Amino acid sequence: MITQRASIDQVFHALGDATRRAIIEKLSEGPVSVSMLAKPLNITLAAVVQHVQVLQESGLVRTEKVGRVRTCSIEPAGFSLAERWISDRRSLWERRLDRLGDLLAETEE
Amino acid sequence: MITQRASIDQVFHALGDATRRAIIEKLSEGPVSVSMLAKPLNITLAAVVQHVQVLQESGLVRTEKVGRVRTCSIEPAGFSLAERWISDRRSLWERRLDRLGDLLAETEE
To answer: ipTM of the assembly?
Structure first.
């Protein structure tokens, strides 16, 4: 199933839930069927399906249906989106702090 | 003001809002007073105060009050929390893919 292009809003919103992060932790170890995800998380199958849907729409998880089994796996694209957003901001403020440092050094001289 | 220890839930939740991300973008260029944040964002002062509070509680922004002016600046700790969580998951699934690659190579031999 093709994952639609996710927004940064969706990615961070999806990651802001402990159960969805537990699903991602599990999938980081390898693909798992939806029903196998429900067991260790101790939540209903319906709840897992809903969380997986949010993760899929945010581009963090992809699913594939073979026969009657839907298998979930990690989709790196969504994670890259979040990482890039944070690192872009970080480079902005680090550059500013560097300039401040230069200015202080000049003042001392 | 000392920023309380934030949870990963709070950090991702805080980042999942476009206005709060706009505040972070602005603060990445340097510290700004709360009232100066409200102008370019075209939202009320009350709304900015609320967003800043969420950002502060999640450890992404710190504020300091000097006289009657509250100034906001970036707090790198919250960003590190988010980055570390993502990169820890990434190393898990990349290690698994490496092992899969090794296994395939062995099978071919």
So the answer is: 0.83
